[in-house]
Amino acid sequence: MIWNRHSNWFDNLNLKKMKRILIVICILLIFLACNKKDQEILVFNTEPATRFIGLMNYLEEKSPSGFDNKGLSLKTREEEYQKNLKDTVLKNKIDSLLGLPAYSVLSEITTVFIDTNKIHGKEAYRLAFLNLPYNVVSMSGGLSESWVDFWKTGKSDNALKFINSITSRSGTVTKNTIKYAKEFLPSDLNDSRKVETVFCADGNRGSFTIDEKIYMDLLDFDNYNLDRFTKILAHEYHHVIYEKWLDDYNPTGKTDETKKAVFDFQKGIIMEGLAQQINYDDYSQQIMVLYNNKDLIKELQENWMNTFKKIIHSEDPLDTFETESDKMWGNSIPLLKRYSAEKIEEETYPHRPSTLYYLGYHLYHTILKNGGKKELEYAITHPDQVLEIYNKVRNKESVMPEFPQDIVKLWKDSFKTE
Fold this sequence. Notes:
Number of helices: 18
Helix content: 55-70%
Distance between the termini: 84 Å
Strand order of the largest sheet: 1-5-7-6
Shape: globular
Radius of gyration: 27 Å
């Protein structure tokens, strides 16, 4: 009897231990499952970047002086071009790169200028590569010049190391990307779609999103800081997730052309305004000075309000939207030169004065700063009331002026269905 009593006691003790162990195992499995789920949200595609780097390295090795080939005669350049045409290794490397889906997107706005001819798309890339390393052809956006500079200054080695660093720490990068983005997304949003991040290294369009994919261009980064990169990635990830949320919950629908054009115009300022809250602190001092120039902000605001009304009252709102959007972006360089009192830094040009970025930033920054997280959360989930909320919380220290009531009403009414 004594033995049986002790035996039961030990059995009970072991049972308690087993329960505790099972609980710990369950918690661990849940944690690992959640962590794995987070890691799968962002899928990193490094092939466009690594193939581009491999191709450029091959071209650099073809010449004893690398890409530094100034002073060569036209005859020599033409002879080397003909040699490249017969180089099957080079042809395969070019075909391998341009065959990637990413280059169907990147090549859309690419042009090479040779004599009086303009060559577009993938053939523009092909011609640029075939002329290297002995001849840098004229290319839209100065692409081929930027490639050569990137390789001559040794930045390509850093780019490759950075890719390896990102892929080896993909779990941490993904976790932090989601964390940064979630601060400016609806709190009840549960979007666990896989989002592909495509790494490029050709300087074409910077970092952007299209068709729910993120394109990250490594030629944009002089300082390969992982946290800074992660915040830019979070900025783009926020676009993918929040744009889907806006479209799903957009009360205007897509049947009315006027409403669609106006909503697209509104959507731009909403999305850029929120996403910039993630990485604005990493902007340079010169960029921040521009962002906080009250005269510049006032001019941008007035231009934006005039454009907003013009789209609403247009007979062809979609065409007006596209024309006016191009005009606003085209005006950014003159504005940059007019409001910059010192030498313009290279990093400032991609962040030059533009309505969507500058006004959008101040809309949500002011709401967060003066109204707190609760007010910001309300603004995030009620985009039709953003201007109204801004006017309510702004004060005399705010950089951007108050919005007139007729603009507030037009903004709000444009979200409504009949």
